[in-house]
Amino acid sequence: MISAIATIATKSAQEAQQRVQTVFHKYTPVFQELLLSLRNNPENFEGKVAAVCVLPEIEDVHYYLIDPTGVIYHTNYPKDLGLDLSAFPKFWKALEKELAQKPVVVHPFAFETRTGRIRMYLYTRMQSGDTFELGLTLRQDFLDPLFGNVLHLQKLPFVERVGLYSAQLLPIAPIFSPLPENLRIRIATFPNKERFGFVHQTMVRRVQVPLLGNVATTLFAVAQFNFLGLHMFSAALLLGGLLFLLYLTKQHSTCFTRIVGDLKTLSTMDQPAFEREFAFFETQRIAKALFTSYKETEEVFTVFAHKLALVAEGYDVKTSKHMQRVAKVAELVARELGITNPDIPRYAGLHDIGKIFIPREILKKEEPLTKEEWEMMKLHTVLAEQLLDHPRLAVARNMALYHHENFDGTGYPKGLKGEEIPIEAQILKIADVYDALRDERPYRRAFSHEEAMGIILEGDGRVQREHFHPQVLAAFLRIEELIHKLYDEGIIEGKTREA
């Protein structure tokens, strides 16, 4: 999940950067004229700086006089008095290099070290050899709407806090609540760690924002979760499964005990022929009972998977037919590839189980999703990983987590490419895409088989041929007439909403 949050955070930071730069370029002539004026005539620079405060996007203006060693010796922002910029060697060297080449150096997007507020900076080298710095703090309400995209993720289940923080772990906007002191200490103490806690879990991802020259600043995307409810739900499922397995073990143990007893009897007693024959048939009967019990266990797993798929599809029985179609097509494609793993058709219907964590109003929305809603919908892949983390469910987890990955690396949530994507997920993907095209949606009609195949092979902007594993696509093409026949015979029908 933190990967998706970090992606949204990166996009929001980029949008904020672009918006700040738009403002900066709007006033570039004013800024440059001001600094050139100060460079040539530093008298009354306080009055000249004050004139910039009237700009509507600017909240505060601070000036700094910096000696050649990098120490601020005069400023209207007392908290920075005495600050040594040479303590940030990459930044200071880049600034010195640019000042040697340009009369005015612009730094249009940065974070104020102590507060995390977004600022713009301009620098010039005075005739005295000192550096003059002008810092412009932007009005926060000018930027809050952009960071609302990140804050919107707090509507997800289990999410307690989502925010963007500066390198000093300070919120970069008031809409993000400050991090608890103990958490700030833990993140600072373990700078390379990305996950803290278990039930109350915090995930941290670093986002690099380019600044001056080759210098970049670090933002922290932080998400805090409370998985107590999920762990209780998982524990209940696990307990029920253990009790069921204990029951089966007891039954199987009894059967095995009888088999061993029969074998000992056969090996130690000189029984008449009819008695040995009777023991042999009794052993066969018990073995058959064991096989029946095993099949019943497998059936329980299959039925349970189907029930969970119903939940994932929005608690609507009609949409279970989407699961049935996808599972059938996936089974046929796997068989054509020579793959006989029964877990593929058994768990194919669980590929959207993560949608139980997505708000119902998004799942049921008939008009196109907004950008924010779409980003939230895409999280259903990584959310499924929290439910399907048992080794026995590895195939189910792979299909749920990776069925929106593309063979050319353009998919989500992790941007996997080629053979990095598990084969069961690549099989599920083509079955899922085909079914989505053949299915009617609130915003479009269902496509015919010929139209769906045209989109898969030639692309339509959203679906591209390069998205599919070449061998999986070739297998699908070899049996497309069979799939066409199954759909046109009306085996299953219904509506789904697929992210």
Task: Write a brief structural summary.
The protein has 499 residues and is an alpha+beta fold. The chain has 18 helices and 9 strands.
General description of the model:
With about 500 residues, the protein is an alpha+beta fold. It has 4 domains: about 1-140, Beta-Lactamase, CATH 3.30.450; about 145-225; about 230-300; about 315-490, Hypothetical protein af1432, CATH 1.10.3210.10. It is about 50% helix and about 15% strand. It has helices spanning about 1-25, 30-40, 45-50, 90-100, 145-150, 180-190, 230-270, 275-310, 320-335, 345, 360-365, 370-380, 380-385, 395-400, 425-440, 450-460, 470-480, 480-490, and strands spanning about 60-65, 70-75, 105-110, 120-125, 130-140, 160-165, 195, 200-210, 215-225. The strands form 2 sheets. Strands 2-1-5-4-3 form a 5-stranded antiparallel β-sheet, sandwiched between helices. Strands 6-9-8-7 form a 4-stranded antiparallel β-sheet. The longest helix has about 40 residues, at about 230-270. It is elongated, with a radius of gyration of 32 Å. It starts with a helix and ends in an 11-residue tail after the last helix. The model is unreliable at about 265-270, about 315-320 and about 490-499 (pLDDT under 50).
Tell me the strand order in the biggest sheet: 2-1-5-4-3
> Could you please say which CATH topology of the largest domain applies here?
Hypothetical protein af1432
CATH architecture classification of the largest domain: Orthogonal Bundle
Radius of gyration: 32 Å
As a percent range, the share of helical residues equals 40-55%
Number of strand elements: 9
Distance between the termini: 16 Å
Largest sheet: 5 strands, antiparallel
* Spans where pLDDT lies below 50 across 5 or more residues: 266-271, 315-319, 492-499
CATH class of the largest domain, anyone? Mainly Alpha
Q: Give me the CATH superfamily of the largest domain.
A: Hypothetical protein af1432
> What is the typical, i.e. mean, pLDDT?
76
Shape: elongated
How many domains in all?
4
Task: Supply the helix-strand structural class.
Answer: alpha+beta
